[in-house]
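Regression report. Comparing outputs from two consecutive submissions.

Submission 1:
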Amino acid sequence: MATYQEIKAQIAELQIQAEKARKQEIASAVAQIKSLMAEYGITVADLSKSSKSSAKKRATVPPKYRDPATGKTWTGRGRAPKWIADAKNPEQYLIK
Protein backbone atom coordinates (compact mmCIF):
# COMPACT_ATOMS: atom_id res chain seq x y z
CA MET A 1 0.00 0.00 0.00
CA ALA A 2 1.29 3.46 -0.95
CA THR A 3 1.98 6.05 1.71
CA TYR A 4 0.38 9.45 1.87
CA GLN A 5 3.56 11.15 0.63
CA GLU A 6 3.83 8.78 -2.33
CA ILE A 7 0.22 9.46 -3.31
CA LYS A 8 0.78 13.22 -3.04
CA ALA A 9 3.83 12.90 -5.32
CA GLN A 10 1.77 10.91 -7.83
CA ILE A 11 -0.96 13.55 -7.74
CA ALA A 12 1.59 16.31 -8.40
CA GLU A 13 3.04 14.37 -11.34
CA LEU A 14 -0.43 13.73 -12.78
CA GLN A 15 -1.30 17.42 -12.46
CA ILE A 16 1.83 18.31 -14.43
CA GLN A 17 0.94 15.74 -17.11
CA ALA A 18 -2.64 17.00 -17.26
CA GLU A 19 -1.47 20.60 -17.73
CA LYS A 20 0.87 19.56 -20.57
CA ALA A 21 -1.94 17.63 -22.28
CA ARG A 22 -4.28 20.60 -21.86
CA LYS A 23 -1.79 22.99 -23.46
CA GLN A 24 -1.24 20.61 -26.39
CA GLU A 25 -4.99 20.23 -26.96
CA ILE A 26 -5.51 23.99 -26.80
CA ALA A 27 -2.73 24.54 -29.35
CA SER A 28 -4.34 21.96 -31.64
CA ALA A 29 -7.78 23.54 -31.26
CA VAL A 30 -6.41 27.04 -31.98
CA ALA A 31 -4.62 25.75 -35.09
CA GLN A 32 -7.82 24.08 -36.28
CA ILE A 33 -9.85 27.26 -35.68
CA LYS A 34 -7.29 29.40 -37.53
CA SER A 35 -7.31 26.94 -40.43
CA LEU A 36 -11.11 27.03 -40.69
CA MET A 37 -11.17 30.82 -40.43
CA ALA A 38 -8.63 31.10 -43.24
CA GLU A 39 -10.50 28.55 -45.37
CA TYR A 40 -13.85 30.36 -45.08
CA GLY A 41 -12.48 33.92 -44.87
CA ILE A 42 -13.88 34.53 -41.39
CA THR A 43 -12.47 37.39 -39.30
CA VAL A 44 -12.68 38.07 -35.58
CA ALA A 45 -15.07 40.92 -36.36
CA ASP A 46 -17.37 38.44 -38.12
CA LEU A 47 -17.48 36.33 -34.97
CA SER A 48 -18.45 39.17 -32.68
CA LYS A 49 -20.91 40.64 -35.17
CA SER A 50 -22.86 37.41 -35.52
CA SER A 51 -23.32 36.93 -31.80
CA LYS A 52 -24.72 40.45 -31.33
CA SER A 53 -27.10 40.30 -34.27
CA SER A 54 -28.61 37.01 -33.16
CA ALA A 55 -29.74 38.43 -29.82
CA LYS A 56 -33.30 39.75 -30.01
CA LYS A 57 -34.36 42.72 -27.97
CA ARG A 58 -37.72 42.72 -26.25
CA ALA A 59 -40.05 45.54 -27.14
CA THR A 60 -41.79 47.22 -24.24
CA VAL A 61 -45.56 47.11 -24.32
CA PRO A 62 -47.49 50.20 -23.29
CA PRO A 63 -49.82 49.76 -20.32
CA LYS A 64 -53.44 49.00 -21.12
CA TYR A 65 -54.99 49.31 -17.67
CA ARG A 66 -54.48 51.77 -14.77
CA ASP A 67 -55.64 51.53 -11.15
CA PRO A 68 -57.06 54.97 -10.28
CA ALA A 69 -56.49 54.44 -6.56
CA THR A 70 -52.76 53.68 -6.71
CA GLY A 71 -51.77 54.68 -10.23
CA LYS A 72 -50.31 51.24 -10.92
CA THR A 73 -50.55 49.98 -14.48
CA TRP A 74 -50.81 46.62 -16.23
CA THR A 75 -50.09 45.80 -19.86
CA GLY A 76 -52.71 43.08 -20.12
CA ARG A 77 -50.05 40.40 -20.42
CA GLY A 78 -49.24 37.80 -17.82
CA ARG A 79 -51.04 37.27 -14.58
CA ALA A 80 -53.57 39.99 -13.80
CA PRO A 81 -52.92 42.05 -10.67
CA LYS A 82 -55.35 41.70 -7.79
CA TRP A 83 -56.95 45.11 -8.33
CA ILE A 84 -58.13 44.11 -11.82
CA ALA A 85 -58.70 40.39 -11.17
CA ASP A 86 -61.19 41.23 -8.40
CA ALA A 87 -63.03 43.85 -10.49
CA LYS A 88 -66.49 43.04 -11.77
CA ASN A 89 -65.95 45.27 -14.81
CA PRO A 90 -62.24 45.39 -15.81
CA GLU A 91 -63.06 47.71 -18.71
CA GLN A 92 -63.41 50.57 -16.22
CA TYR A 93 -59.62 50.46 -15.79
CA LEU A 94 -58.82 50.76 -19.51
CA ILE A 95 -56.47 53.62 -20.36
CA LYS A 96 -58.05 55.74 -23.06
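Submission 2:
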Amino acid sequence: MTSPTAWIEFFEGITEDLSNVSLRRKRLSGVRTVLLTFKEVKSLDKFNSFTKRFSNSIRLTDAEGVISVQPSSVKFMFGGPEGDDFQRMECEFEIGREDHWERFMRFMHRYAEANEMVFKTN
Protein backbone atom coordinates (compact mmCIF):
# COMPACT_ATOMS: atom_id res chain seq x y z
CA MET A 1 0.00 0.00 0.00
CA THR A 2 1.33 3.41 -0.90
CA SER A 3 1.39 6.41 1.41
CA PRO A 4 -1.51 8.84 0.85
CA THR A 5 -0.67 12.04 -1.01
CA ALA A 6 -3.26 14.10 0.90
CA TRP A 7 -4.87 13.59 4.30
CA ILE A 8 -7.01 15.24 6.99
CA GLU A 9 -6.35 15.25 10.76
CA PHE A 10 -8.01 16.64 13.89
CA PHE A 11 -5.33 15.04 16.07
CA GLU A 12 -1.75 14.78 14.92
CA GLY A 13 -1.10 11.27 13.60
CA ILE A 14 -4.76 10.17 13.27
CA THR A 15 -5.98 10.52 9.69
CA GLU A 16 -9.70 10.91 9.05
CA ASP A 17 -11.77 9.76 6.08
CA LEU A 18 -13.86 12.49 4.51
CA SER A 19 -17.33 11.27 3.51
CA ASN A 20 -18.55 14.32 1.64
CA VAL A 21 -17.66 17.93 0.92
CA SER A 22 -19.99 20.75 -0.05
CA LEU A 23 -18.65 23.98 -1.54
CA ARG A 24 -20.82 27.11 -1.58
CA ARG A 25 -20.35 30.76 -2.51
CA LYS A 26 -22.37 33.62 -1.02
CA ARG A 27 -23.84 35.67 -3.86
CA LEU A 28 -23.46 39.10 -2.25
CA SER A 29 -20.08 38.82 -0.53
CA GLY A 30 -18.41 36.20 -2.72
CA VAL A 31 -17.16 34.42 0.42
CA ARG A 32 -16.87 30.69 -0.06
CA THR A 33 -18.06 28.21 2.56
CA VAL A 34 -16.73 24.67 2.87
CA LEU A 35 -18.71 21.95 4.67
CA LEU A 36 -16.75 18.75 5.36
CA THR A 37 -18.79 15.72 6.44
CA PHE A 38 -17.29 12.71 8.24
CA LYS A 39 -19.46 9.61 8.80
CA GLU A 40 -16.76 8.13 11.02
CA VAL A 41 -14.32 10.06 13.21
CA LYS A 42 -11.36 7.95 14.34
CA SER A 43 -10.13 10.59 16.76
CA LEU A 44 -13.40 10.80 18.75
CA ASP A 45 -11.99 8.50 21.42
CA LYS A 46 -8.95 10.81 21.70
CA PHE A 47 -10.93 13.92 22.72
CA ASN A 48 -10.45 13.07 26.41
CA SER A 49 -6.95 11.69 25.99
CA PHE A 50 -3.61 13.37 26.44
CA THR A 51 -1.79 10.85 24.22
CA LYS A 52 -2.29 12.98 21.10
CA ARG A 53 -2.09 16.75 20.70
CA PHE A 54 -5.40 18.35 19.65
CA SER A 55 -4.70 21.40 17.53
CA ASN A 56 -8.17 23.07 17.69
CA SER A 57 -8.08 22.99 13.91
CA ILE A 58 -8.40 20.75 10.91
CA ARG A 59 -5.06 19.92 9.34
CA LEU A 60 -5.20 19.36 5.58
CA THR A 61 -1.85 17.97 4.44
CA ASP A 62 -0.54 17.29 0.95
CA ALA A 63 2.64 17.60 -1.11
CA GLU A 64 2.53 21.42 -0.84
CA GLY A 65 2.43 21.37 2.96
CA VAL A 66 -0.16 21.86 5.70
CA ILE A 67 -3.31 23.97 5.63
CA SER A 68 -4.52 24.61 9.19
CA VAL A 69 -8.17 25.71 9.39
CA GLN A 70 -10.19 26.63 12.48
CA PRO A 71 -13.81 25.63 11.81
CA SER A 72 -16.51 28.25 12.34
CA SER A 73 -18.94 25.44 13.14
CA VAL A 74 -18.62 21.79 14.22
CA LYS A 75 -21.79 19.71 14.55
CA PHE A 76 -22.13 16.15 15.80
CA MET A 77 -25.24 14.33 14.53
CA PHE A 78 -26.68 11.38 16.47
CA GLY A 79 -29.57 9.04 15.75
CA GLY A 80 -30.70 5.46 16.26
CA PRO A 81 -33.36 4.06 18.58
CA GLU A 82 -31.85 5.68 21.69
CA GLY A 83 -30.60 8.78 19.88
CA ASP A 84 -27.00 8.12 20.88
CA ASP A 85 -25.59 6.43 17.75
CA PHE A 86 -23.03 8.64 16.04
CA GLN A 87 -24.11 9.33 12.44
CA ARG A 88 -21.78 12.05 11.24
CA MET A 89 -19.80 15.15 12.05
CA GLU A 90 -19.93 18.34 9.99
CA CYS A 91 -17.14 20.94 10.01
CA GLU A 92 -17.75 24.27 8.33
CA PHE A 93 -15.36 27.10 7.56
CA GLU A 94 -15.18 30.09 5.25
CA ILE A 95 -12.51 31.03 2.74
CA GLY A 96 -12.51 34.69 1.76
CA ARG A 97 -9.30 35.09 -0.21
CA GLU A 98 -8.95 33.83 -3.77
CA ASP A 99 -5.38 32.51 -3.24
CA HIS A 100 -6.54 30.55 -0.17
CA TRP A 101 -9.44 29.12 -2.21
CA GLU A 102 -7.10 28.04 -5.00
CA ARG A 103 -4.77 26.36 -2.49
CA PHE A 104 -7.73 24.57 -0.84
CA MET A 105 -8.96 23.36 -4.22
CA ARG A 106 -5.51 21.97 -5.09
CA PHE A 107 -5.63 20.05 -1.80
CA MET A 108 -9.17 18.78 -2.52
CA HIS A 109 -8.18 17.54 -5.97
CA ARG A 110 -5.24 15.63 -4.46
CA TYR A 111 -7.42 14.27 -1.64
CA ALA A 112 -10.15 13.22 -4.08
CA GLU A 113 -7.66 11.46 -6.33
CA ALA A 114 -5.95 9.67 -3.42
CA ASN A 115 -9.29 8.52 -1.96
CA GLU A 116 -11.19 7.77 -5.20
CA MET A 117 -13.71 10.58 -4.67
CA VAL A 118 -15.46 12.34 -7.56
CA PHE A 119 -16.54 15.97 -7.77
CA LYS A 120 -20.06 16.62 -8.97
CA THR A 121 -22.16 19.75 -9.25
CA ASN A 122 -25.80 20.02 -8.28
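Expected: both submissions complete independently.
Actual: both completed, but the second showed a warning that disappeared on reload.
Relevant detail on submission 2: The CA atoms of residues 8 and 60 lie 5 Å apart.
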